Amino acid sequence: MLCPFLAGTTESVRMTNLSDFSDDELAQILDAPGAVLKGATLADGRPGPIRFIRELASGAKVFREAQVHENAFVQSVAAALRDREASAAKDGGPGSEDGAEPAADGSVLPDPEGEAARAVELTAASVALLRGRADEKDVDAYGEWLIRIATQVAKATRSKDGGFFSKRVTVSADEQAFIEKLTAAVGR
């Protein structure tokens, strides 16, 4: 006999698995969190070394927290990212920088506006893909996680908003604009 609490319940719980997606779709889902991290780091322009390290550490913390997230799908994305990074490190690291421009000294500098736009675009595409094929709770948790990455990175350092003599703020206007665009891309 069924448990009396479950009697009459026909709703089934649908689990979203990464194996449900093609390699290209999976790459898109896995690339979005890194693009958000990069976009949030560059939202105020190119950060100095100390600011970059603080923002990167803050983003890394959100990635680590995702490995024990209450949502199993977010956990699986975080684990897949960890495994992909470990594999890339073993194979010699990532390739060339996308969306980067050469500096006067020959080094490659990222394009802040281009990276922010790429992050928003990739987020919108990933969430749209998931909305069509994943459990709604998983889609919401994934989108909230992406917004959390951007928010935590933006809050990692204080910024001067408005010039040299301006007051320092927790989240600058450019960072807030990026978070708002990201939130719209997630559909919140």
- The H-and-E topology, N to C, reads as HHHEEHHEEH
Separate helix tally: 6
Indicate the proportion of strand residues: 5-15%
Mean pLDDT, as a whole number? 82
The value of Rg in angstroms is 19 Å
Taking pLDDT < 50 over at least 5 consecutive residues as the criterion, the unreliable ranges are 1-12
Shape: globular
Number of β-strand runs = 4
- In spatial order, strands of the major sheet run 1-2
- Major beta sheet, specifics? 2 strands, antiparallel
What number of domains?
Answer: 1
Helix content: 55-70%
How far is it from the N-terminal to the C-terminal residue, by CA? 42 Å
Give the structural class.
mainly alpha
What descriptive keywords fit this protein?
disordered N terminus, 188 residues, two-stranded antiparallel sheet, two-stranded antiparallel ribbon, 60% helix, single chain, mainly alpha
